[in-house]
Write a structure and sequence with these properties.
Elements lengths: L4 E7 L3 H12 L2 E4 L4 E5 L8 E4 L8 E7 L3 H10 L3 E9 L3 E7 L5 E7 L3
Parallel strand pairs: 1-4, 5-8
Antiparallel strand pairs: 1-5, 2-3, 3-4, 6-7, 7-8
C-alpha cells in the first residue's frame, strides 16, 4: 500500500487567535471540535486539510503531518526498530481511526494515521 500524507496539524495556545490569523491570511474555514481543536478546510481539492489543536501542555507550538498506514502499531514498531522514538502511543479518535506520534532519528515529530475500516 502507498503511504500518502493525509493530514496536517498545527499546535497553538490561543485557538481563537490562531484561527483568526489563518482565516485572514489564507481564507481557510474552520469548524470547532470542542474547546481545544478546530478542523481546517483549505477550500480546495488540491492538497490536504488539517486541524488546529491546543493540547494544554508542552509542546504548545508545533506543526506535524500524518502519514496513512495499514496498522498504526505495526508502523510504530517498525519506526522504533529503525531508530525512531514513540512520542504518543496509538490513540483512538472515536469513529475516525487511530493515530500515533513518533520522533524520527533527527527529532522530527511525525504522525501515523490508520483510518477506521468501513
Amino acid at each position: 500500500m502507498p503511504h500518502p500524507v493525509v493530514h496536517f496539524e498545527i499546535g497553538c495556545q490561543d485557538l481563537a487567535k490562531t484561527k483568526a490569523f489563518y482565516s485572514s491570511l489564507f481564507g481557510w474555514s474552520m469548524d470547532d471540535m470542542g474547546p481545544q481543536a478546530a478542523m481546517i478546510a483549505t477550500g480546495t481539492d488540491e492538497g490536504i486539510d488539517g486541524h488546529f489543536s491546543t493540547l494544554g501542555h508542552e509542546p504548545h507550538q508545533y506543526v506535524t503531518f500524518y502519514v496513512q498506514v495499514d496498522d498504526v502499531q505495526g508502523a510504530l514498531d517498525k519506526a522504533t526498530g529503525l531508530g525512531a522514538k514513540e512520542v504518543v502511543p496509538p490513540t483512538e479518535v472515536p469513529g475516525m481511526g487511530h493515530f500515533a506520534w513518533m520522533s524520527d532519528p533527527e527529532g522530527n515529530c511525525i504522525g501515523l494515521w490508520q483510518p477506521s475500516k468501513g
